[in-house]
Amino acid sequence: MKYPTYFINPYTLREVLHDKDYTAYWCSRNEHNPEVVSFLRMLGQYNHAIELGLLFIDSSKDERHKATAIIRLASVYHWCNNFDKSKALFEECISINDDIVINGFAYQHLSKLYFDNKDYVNALKYAQKAYKIREKYDKKRLPSTELILKRLTENL
Fold it and tell me: Which residues contact 102 (CB under 8 A, 6 or more apart)?
C-alpha cells in the first residue's frame, strides 16, 4: 500500500493532502506505522494522532525512533495551537538525539512553529539551521527548507 501524498502550501507552509479519502483509508490500515501520526494530523484527527503519538514514543526501541516519534507528536501539538508543548517536544528531540538529519527535521518544524507565531526572527534562525544541515546531509529535502526561507523573506 503506497503512502499518501501531500504538498506544502507555499503560503501557510503546512502539508496539504492530495487525497483525504485515500489517506483516511491508509491510516485505518496502518495504525501500527509511526508515520500514521503525521497523516492523522493532516486529516485534522488530532486526538487520535496524539493518542498514537504517545504510544509510539513509549514503545520506541531506541533514541532515533523516539526522536522521530517526538517530532511527529510535536507537529500535532503545533497544529492544535499548543505552541509551548510543541516547542518543548522539539527541544527534547534535539537534546536526546545525535542524528544530524533528524535534527534538521526538528529545526525545520521549529521554524514553522515560530512562523505561525509570527516570530519571524526565530523562524529564520531555525530555518537557517535546517538549511545548513540539509545542504550537506539531506539534499532531497532541501527544497522544502528553501520554500520556508523564501516565505520568511517575504515577512522580514
Answer: 64, 67, 68, 71, 93
